[in-house]
């Protein structure tokens, strides 16, 4: 009996020991699995952190400020033929890759007389722009991915008044380029930039007010909305507003660091607003009849630190271009609506509206022949400017033939460089008037 008891105790202990070993093995197995999962999670987190760091570095480098602007100059020993060949290669790439299809419904044409232009080229990096008034601050900067200088606008509710906008006629056009530097997915109370047309007596009044005046039309690019406008009248029953999403400022936007072109066209009470290739707003009664407009200025509202808008290439023009009469009756059409990248013969897409109207006139009058003549300002090398003007005229000719169906027999092209300046002044407006394309009936 005693022996059986001892055997049972022994068997029980062995069973317990076996169970303990099994449990320990299971625990060890679970611990190993958890350790492996922890290591994997740690590795994944490290990879994500590294990827985020690289992304931030890439974005930061996009907006890294340069102290000096890159300028394309004729190299020592480089002859005109070499420059010309380089431009021809550039033109071939343009013809092969660039299309105006996206701008097929773009009907904007700028005013025929430029009265204001700003690209901040005469301002020093780091300074407040000399020809502007504001209630906050702004800084002239250059970006390492784009030519030219830009006005950087940061946190605050701000207004920006340009000295060169001294008259506001019933018919005018206003164009400018905007770049945003913030993460569209990140929440912010406000990220807005735009313009206001108002009956405010003096544009320098109420600079801290977004709704300035008793009658006004205000339009914004808004980081959390896309685009918006507000019309306010003395009779508040006439007030209207609207918001339209745009791809460039959507939450999934990849437009950070890429210029957005804004074009405004006022014709008496009617105001049209274009963003890149699309007409976003066309408001027939944006301003009520009898409203005396005294103020046209830029406005912004940014709520967060280290988030910015950049603005440049501001062009203000007046008068409605009568292209048909100029070309068919007077025999000479001077246009500022055909524009190019800096020091380049590549046509900007916003040239589409002007090119389309000229093509329509030529296609409706196949018997007439015109010579396209390119002109530059007097900045830079004289021979380079001559070659550049010839290549730009050729680019216009190619676009009219290949994109708009104009007969090649109707067209020829030439360039005059800086030899026929319309304005010999040194102001930005003078230089802008000299950069033009002419169509001369033969």
Question: What do you see in this structure?
Answer:
This protein has 442 residues and is an alpha+beta fold. The protein folds into three domains: 1-62; 110-318, Exo-inulinase, domain 1 (Jelly Rolls); 323-441, OmpA-like domain (60s Ribosomal Protein L30, Chain: A). It is 29% helix and 28% strand. It is built from six helices and 19 strands. The chain has helices spanning 2-62, 80-97, 323-330, 352-364, 382-402, 428-434; strands spanning 113-118, 132-134, 139-142, 149-153, 156-162, 171-181, 191-198, 216-222, 226-232, 240-244, 260-267, 270-275, 278-283, 295-302, 308-318, 332-335, 370-375, 411-417, 436-441. Strands 1, 3, 4, 6, 11, 12, 13 and 15 form an eight-stranded antiparallel beta sheet that branches. The longest helix is centred in the first third of the chain and has 61 residues, at 2-62. The chain is globular, with a radius of gyration of 31 Å. The protein starts with a helix and ends with a strand. The model is unreliable at 1-25, 46-88 and 90-98 (pLDDT under 50).
Helices and strands, with pairings:
Blueprint: H1 2-62, H2 80-97, E1 113-118, E2 132-134, E3 139-142, E4 149-153, E5 156-162, E6 171-181, E7 191-198, E8 216-222, E9 226-232, E10 240-244, E11 260-267, E12 270-275, E13 278-283, E14 295-302, E15 308-318, H3 323-330, E16 332-335, H4 352-364, E17 370-375, H5 382-402, E18 411-417, H6 428-434, E19 436-441
Parallel strand pairs: 17-18
Antiparallel strand pairs: 1-15, 2-5, 3-4, 4-15, 5-14, 6-11, 6-15, 7-8, 7-14, 8-9, 9-10, 11-12, 12-13, 16-19, 17-19
